[in-house]
Known about the structure:
Blueprint: H1 7-10, H2 13-29, E1 37-42, E2 45-51, H3 54-57, H4 64-76, E3 84-90, H5 94-102, E4 107-112, E5 137-140, H6 144-161
Parallel strand pairs: 3-4, 4-5
Antiparallel strand pairs: 1-2, 1-3
Helix pairs in contact: 2-6
Amino acid sequence: MIDGVPAMNLLDPDQFWMSRALELANQAISQDEVPVGAVVVKDDQVIAAAANQRESLRDPTAHAEMIAITQAAAAIDDWRLESCTLYVTLEPCLMCSGAILQARIPRIVYGATDPKGGAVHSLYEVLHDTRLNHRCQVTAGVMSDACGRILTEFFSSKRAQGKK
């Protein structure tokens, strides 16, 4: 609430939910994780929220999107997330794009592009591939400056520390 007005009314809904994903990305930094956050929204409610956990779980599949998709399926007791929207701070990779299609998520919104691993627009366009039986509406670039900046600062800090 800001002066008695719900915060969501002051922002575009995509910006509102992306700001929630950015909060998760910021929290990931304290876990020494690449700062990517994801939320799944259904009927204007968050049903899943996650950040990257590859380092802490020692699991290469523990991307924010993968964890959020698993949580969302459990929350609605169905693997089909047909009435959900996924918000993620970084363009999904090939693995996550495949999971998005398998979960039948009809819409994703992402912030920063990923020129080295993005599978939505940058390297591949998996979510729009007409050879597949499901496609996904995509809104790209929502809060892209903030989403990109957190990643740039994280990796700059790592390079300054001499870490990979």
